[in-house]
Amino acid sequence: MQFQRDYQMFAPSQARSLLAMIMALFLAACDGSSSVNDRTADSPTPNTPETPAIPQQPNAPLQPSTPAAPEGEPDFTLALASAEPGSALAITEGAESKIGVSTQFLNGFDRSVSLSVEGRAVDLEDLSLALSETTIVPGTSENQVRNLELTLRLAVGALPIMPHQRSVTVVGVSGATTKRLQLDIDVIPVPRPDVYLLIGQSNMSGSSGGGKDAGPGGLDEPHPRIRQLNVKGDDETPGAHTSRSLNVMPEVFVRAEDPLHKPLPAGASSKDGVSIGPGLSFAKAALGDTTQNIILVPAAWGDTGFCRELRPRGSWNAVVRNVGDLSNETLLYQRALLRTAVAIEESGGILRGIIMHQGEKDASDEFKGRDCVQYYAENIRLLVSELRTNITEDVRGPEWRDPEAAIPFVMGTMSRGADERNDYSQFSPAKSVVDGVHRNISGLLSYATFANFDDLVPPGYPCGAGDCIHFGASAAREMGRRYYMALRDAVDSQ
Known about the structure:
alpha/beta; 16 strands; Sialate O-acetylesterase domain-containing protein
């Protein structure tokens, strides 16, 4: 909690102590006095909760305040204007806040004062500041007070934030005299849910082949703050990919439970199905970095890729390119757009990221006489760019719908598991090409990286359904955690 602090003038009662007191104030200003005007922006803010969204950075040295003039001498002060003692300064992410600042000219001080605002990089992140006046000229009265406004706006950034406190300093300079007013501001996260899109193949939708542990205290127990779009099952009916009624249940949002890509029927308290994917553990990892609900948007579909198919389930192409063996339809991309649009429009949430598990289908098509691997890197680049551009806008506005928007994207690596059923430890040439695209995704796209799952193999991590092309339940849980850590890194590393 920040309390109002007013500048304290030095008022000696005995002439012989004047020099000693001036020196004491000067030293206090240099090493961080508790007086608002004497504290520099380098002074640590007490009891400030740490937030992973805003990493600490080195403080820049700032010139300290000039000590107060002797009693009766011309001087000026800076203070909060019209604030109740003990009141807190606060700003909500995505909103604007105005703070009144007063400049008082004392004992005939007759020089103009130039005003500015300073702060550490950590405190200024996503924060814009504007003073209503930057030069204050004293009037003719003996002790005139001039009021102005400092307007702050904290933009909603790429990652959610936690409640914390920031400090900025209003600096007044007149000749050799410098005064500082430190403002400690409580930051309140934007009150909107965090939305994440899940796309790709069966390892994203969940093919663990069992292992679901969703009972009380279980590893896959649902969490009240993790919600999901209540999607219907995969539907190959013509028009189903772009029909809301064929994609989303009447009860739009439910508590997230595996399998995420299956609906919670009306009146049911839990889902059937014993397989899990990485989505729920991903969301659980994210809970510690947000005060808001999390909404997962399941949009993966097993055994899908970018090549032509006789089956009507669709491809992940976002653009019809008319090259090689690529499919000339965009059904799964359109389905992902639709589902994310419903989630954002119905919840008012903010798109915080996209995670994908893909590649097995694209690499295996070489055995069917189709060559799509050579286009794989461009396919992924186009898909992510089009999703970032065309997903329904959220509260951040149209500038966040651009191919280069800071919407993090994470691609997971394919399984290298081996057991008695099959051995995927060594990749074919085509699969190696796909794997290389995943590992170098940051070279294709901004705010993108990969999550490495090479070690999530037997015996420590049993394989999933069918054979080791699928990750098992214990691997899926660890995948989710790694997806989340990679997603944060995709933003922080830029």
